[in-house]
Design a protein that fits this description.
The complex is a heterodimer of chains A (138) and B (86).
Chain A: E1 5-6, E2 9-10, H1 26-36, E3 38-48, E4 51-62, H2 65-70, H3 84-90, E5 93-95, E6 102-104, H4 105-110, H5 121-137
Antiparallel strand pairs in A: 1-2, 3-4, 5-6
Chain B: E1 2-11, E2 14-27, H1 28-34, H2 47-54, E3 55-57, E4 64-66, H3 67-71
Antiparallel strand pairs in B: 1-2, 3-4
Classes of the chains: A alpha+beta (138), B alpha+beta (86).
Chain lengths: 138, 86
Amino acid sequence: MELQTKGELKMEDYTFKPERTEDTGLAGAIDKILDKGLVINADITIDVSGVELLGIKIRAALASFETAARYGLEFPSGTNINTAAWKEAMIQKEECPQCGKKVDREELLNIACPWCGWQSAKAKKAKERKVSAKVEVH
Amino acid sequence: MAVDASVRVNLVGADLLGINARIILSSFKTATEIGLKFPEGTDFDAPGWRDLITKQQCPICGMKSTREDLKEGCPWCGWNYRQKEN
């Protein structure tokens, strides 16, 4: 596997090595676009024989439900935004660099991925500090 | 992505139909940077906007963290710009 380099620094010097394969097909691309959100701004005019007949202004945003909820986009009237799914959508999630599952960001950063056990550098440092504190006490 | 299109239909030199279109497509982040408009009713106090402004990407792992976290080293991969190269 080719390693990414940044000058003299190499990915292998750091704590994680991505192992999952990315979905590079159309579904993956659409998933990525909707996750980041897409804004469309358009001004369209139609004229007949030089006389402007119709003008269309479009101000649109396309996003997944989670992204739309996080960025405060409006939903059709009558949508119940107090269900468990909306509360779940407001919790910030990150993709585990190892297994690719979406997990609560705070849990992934401070504890470990509940799916594959991957730990961030911060979680590993915190664990080392706890272990050395226990050793000192004994 | 920007599209600037002009379509004109002429018949025997006479201008019959004209369509002008100026369209921009971008991500939410780029849209806020270049000043695109969002649909009416968008709540700019939602948590997603705050994260967009306060978080930066680690150049090694690409994960986002606040500037304060990054000063001590990326909390995800451990990269620290103050590290001496071996």
